[in-house]
Amino acid sequence: MEDDIEFKTIPTIQCSTANDQCVKVKAVNEGLEFVIRGCRSRIYKADVSIPQNLHCRSGSPSLCFCKENFCNSASSKFQNLLLASTLIFLIIFFFFPF
């Protein structure tokens, strides 16, 4: 089944250094949308100058920076597992009452 997927899921990472930020870059062209999420230190070259106080910039490409882990809308495996478990519990509870 995994062979049918063109783009594989990339593991979730935490931006671990104190000065690092989570980044979301989104580009839209002719109805296609491309999104990159990651850590500023891993996406940008060291010599690229971007103001530290920049939060979001609109347009294409749009840029958003934030300090907390997973604040760029990336989700952790734990969050996905918790959501799936809750949904399964609710389905069982409502459709198969004791």
Automatic annotation (TrEMBL):
Keywords attached to this entry: Glycoprotein, Membrane, Signal, Transmembrane, Transmembrane helix
SUPFAM superfamilies, per database record: Snake toxin-like
Entry keyword Membrane: yes
The protein, known as: Uncharacterized protein
Organism: Meloidogyne enterolobii (Root-knot nematode worm)
GO terms classed as biological process: regulation of synaptic transmission, cholinergic; sleep
Stretches that traverse the bilayer: 78-96
Taxonomy, superkingdom: Eukaryota
Stored InterPro entries: QVR-like, Snake_toxin-like_sf
